[in-house]
Amino acid sequence: MEKPIRELTITRTFDAPRELVWKAWTDQELVRKWWGPQGVTNPTCVWEARTDGKIDIVMLAGKELGPAAGMRWPMNGAFREVTPQSRLVFTSNAIDDNQEALLENVVTVDLQDMGGKTKMTIHIAVTKAVPGKTENMLGGMAAGWNQQTDKLVAMVNGMEK
Predict the structure, then answer these.
(1) 36, 146, 150, 154 — which has fewest CB within 10 A?
(2) At residue 99, what are phi and psi to the nearest 5 degrees?
(3) CB distance 158 to 33 below 8 Å
């Protein structure tokens, strides 16, 4: 992989077993519930968590996002590595209406068993950013990923263990 344009690492600890966190990352219907920052839903969510499986998500901004309400943010990608209960590596690309990548990321998710709790580390490496079209995306990257991760933690901690 070439030198990333930008990188972000997020770590969270869940009060839940690793199997439950893994399920939240690999079950398409669960991903639909938490993917995206606060105020975003996912009317389209294809998440094939297997090596070479595809990702196709369209995030929709809700009324909570004020002037952005109704905006659609499509993305696609593919899984490069799926190590059950332990690691996911996938591409995550913000795309335009012509399916051209505006922003390309490689995302690595590592899960570590902590005796009934789970430590999750997400590393996002931006590998491509189209000048003049991605500055807002890059500027909001940390906030968006942290909000999304907070939604995941809240959902998993609220699931039956």
Answers:
(1) 154
(2) 70, 15
(3) no
pTM comes to 0.94
Task: List the domains of the chain with CATH numbers.
Answer: 6-38+82-158 (3.30.530.20)
61-102 pLDDT, tens per residue? Answer: 999 999 999 999 999 999 999 999 999 999 999 998 888 999
